[in-house]
Amino acid sequence: MRNPRDFLKPLANGAPAPLLDVPATPSRMIHFFDPSNEKMAAKVPDIAQKADVVLGNLEDGVPADRKEAARAGLVSIANSLDPSATLWTRVNSLESPWVLDDITAAVLEAGDKIDVIMLPKVEGPWDIHYADRLIAQLEAKAGLDRPILIHAILETALGMANVEEIASASPRMQGISLGPADLAASRRMKTTRVGGGHPGYRVIDDPDPANPEAPRATAQQDPWHYTLARMVDACTATGILPYYGPYGDIKDVDGCEAQFRAAFLLGCVGTWSLHPVQIGIAKKVFSPDPDEVAFAKKVIEAIPDGRGVHMIDGKMQDDATWKQAQVMVTLARSLAERDPELAEAYGL
Ligand SMILES: CC(C)(COP(=O)(O)OP(=O)(O)OC[C@H]1O[C@@H](n2cnc3c(N)ncnc32)[C@H](O)[C@@H]1OP(=O)(O)O)[C@@H](O)C(=O)NCCC(=O)NCCSC(=O)C[C@](C)(O)C(=O)O
Ligand SMILES: [Mg+2]
Predict the structure, then answer these.
(1) Is the full-model pTM beyond 0.95?
(2) Which are the contacts of 296, defined by CB distance < 8 A and separation ≥ 6?
(3) What is the DSSP letter of 208?
């Protein structure tokens, strides 16, 4: 175990000091693009005005013969993008032949533009420790003055089993996302979908003894509930941020909205968008509802010291519900500061 007194010291001489807190800038949607795809890349400057984060993906989804073009495209976009945009990258997995060059290029050639490096298929704290030291060495070489953060994707059963240790492995950790396709394969879940529900995963009412042949009510369940809830606890317990991940059925905008909303309600701060249509869905879901914000404001105004028991609109409010109201208003305020339309909707 590392000496806890050294936890906030740089891991390489000359590297920037780790951050105590994860930056709380909005990251409701992390928009994925393939930097080797010229048509997609051409849309990025415009998309970066709408999406909280744009992410140049170097890993799965990019064909093996375009890995180098994707890496070069990422560096080129990083150095031409409006500085107000937030750029992340997803590098190839740690056992791949590309990752060393991915991380080296991202830090040495675009390290002052890239805020977060997403590491896929993280299985335990050892993966974070490896990347942590390597990034520190490269940061020192590049003379960077702020640290690049790490975001882990949970996509193996072993990663899930170690999620708490992954979350607390380093002060460089920014957050964790769910990788439902790889995770489903790793767990031998019998679904070929990328996230979302499945018609086979459901509950059904008991038969009616008086009418055993009558149709029985049945409903789909969320196969990701346990995973997301555990991930949210691991992240929030260690001061980092939880995110849902990809929803692969691009045409199913209702299914996408429902999955994003379930994640938002459980505590996730954002999700991924794989296609431009998912940016608006993520914005709608991960910006709190104006009616909820109005009620939360009412609670805070009615209970200035946050103590005692009160009735507001027929509902019991106390010290704990006051904290729930603070969560809602703090999020609304941080979004309103950057978005005049939301500021008006929230009256903030
Ligand atoms: C799904 C696809 C193939 C549909 O692509 P399409 O071209 O068929 O869609 P479209 O509706 O026809 O596209 C309309 C226009 O939007 C553009 N476009 C389309 N998408 C984007 C985009 N993302 N960013 C910017 N522009 C985009 C596209 O180029 C086109 O431009 P045009 O009108 O000029 O012809 C396409 O959207 C795409 O490739 N998206 C990104 C996919 C991706 O990043 N996959 C990897 C992440 S998920 C993952 O890895 C799993 C995980 C975590 O690892 C695990 O669960 O294990
Ligand atoms: Mg994956």
Answers:
(1) yes
(2) 324, 325, 326, 328, 329, 332
(3) B
For residue 274, the CA-to-ligand 1 centroid distance in Å is 5
DSSP code string of 113-130: TEEEEEESS--SHHHHHH
Q: What is the pLDDT of residues 194-245, one digit of tens each?
A: 999 999 999 999 999 999 999 999 999 999 999 999 999 999 999 999 999 9
CB 308 within 8 A of CB 322: no
Name the average pLDDT for the chain.
97
pLDDT of residue 158: 98
Q: Which long-range contacts (CB under 8 A, 24 or more apart) does 315-324 make?
A: 324/296
User: What 8-state DSSP symbol labels residue 87?
Assistant: E
Cα(269)–Cα(111) distance, rounded to whole angstroms? Answer: 25
Contacting residues for 111 by C-beta, under 8 A, at least 6 apart: 138, 139, 142, 144, 148
What pLDDT is attached to residue 78? 98
Closest C-alpha among 293, 170, 167 to residue 242? 167
Cβ 137 vs Cβ 173: under 8 Å: no
d(CA 17, CA 9): 6
The number of the ligand 1 atom at minimal distance from the alpha carbon of 60 is 50
Please give the radius of gyration of the chain, using alpha carbons only, rounded to the nearest integer.
Answer: 22
Q: Where are the beta strands (DSSP E) in 34-148?
A: 53-57, 87-90, 114-119
Residue minimizing CA distance to atom 33 of ligand 1: 39
What ipTM does this complex have? Answer: 0.99
Ligand 1, CB cutoff 6 Å, lining residues: 32-33, 39-40, 43, 47, 57, 60-61, 153, 155, 179-182, 194, 245-246, 250, 274-276
- Nearest ligand, measured from the Cα of 195: 1
Q: How far apart are the first and last CA of the chain?
A: 46
**Ligand 2 centroid to residue 313 C-alpha, Å:** 46
Which atom in ligand 1 lies closest to the alpha carbon of residue 194?
56
Determine the residue of 55, 275, 281 to mutate for testing ligand 1's pocket, defined as the one with the most ligand atoms within 8 A of the Cβ atom: 275
